[in-house]
Structures are given as C-alpha cells and as structure tokens.
UniProtKB/TrEMBL annotation:
It is found in: Mitochondrion. It comes from the Eukaryota. This is COX assembly mitochondrial protein. Pfam families: Cmc1. Belongs to the CMC family. GO terms for cellular component: mitochondrion. Keywords: Disulfide bond, Mitochondrion. The lineage of its organism: Eukaryota, Viridiplantae, Streptophyta, Embryophyta, Tracheophyta. Residues 65-88 are annotated as: Disordered. The keyword Mitochondrion applies.
C-alpha cells in the first residue's frame, strides 16, 4: 500500500507517480497481474528515500528548537535567581 499519489506532496517522486498512474490507465486488468509491479517497487523506494530526507530535516529542526528552548529556560532561571537575590 502506498500513500495518496498527489504530486504536490511528493515532488521528488512526481515522475515515477505519473508513470505508475499511466501504467494503471494503460493496463486496467494487467495491473492486477503484476504489469506495473516494477514501477510500484521504484515508487516505494522513492517514498522511502523521501521519508528519510524529511525525517532527517525534522530531526535537525527539532534539535535547533530544543537548543533554543534550553537557552530560554536557562535565561529564565538566571533572571529568577537574580530577582530573588535582589529582593532578599
């Protein structure tokens, strides 16, 4: 099973998606007997590669966000300790 074959959501795999959809149109019965299997395998590989790239980008983005949040927490902790010190 594959995700919905929308070109705008899978720009890396657009060419293979178009070929796969054309194969299904050209072989309405043959698609059930493996006529388009080779393209399906290419499509699955492309989706895996695309997902890997997205996962890596998301991980990098989350690392940056974590670092930013830790910095903000550290600043807030320093401010509150300074206020306690000044207030006492």
């Amino acid at each position: 099973m594959h995700p919905p074959l929308t070109l705008h959501r899978h720009p890396m795999c657009a060419e293979i998606i178009e070929e796969f959809q054309k194969c299904h149109l050209d072989h309405p019965i043959g698609k059930f007997f493996g006529e388009c299997t080779e393209l399906k395998i290419k499509l699955d590989r492309c989706f895996r590669q695309e997902k890997s790239i997205k996962r890596k980008a998301n991980f990098e983005q989350s690392k940056k966000l974590k670092e930013r949040l830790q910095g903000m927490r550290k600043e807030a902790a320093e401010k509150s300790s300074e206020e306690k010190f000044m207030g006492a």
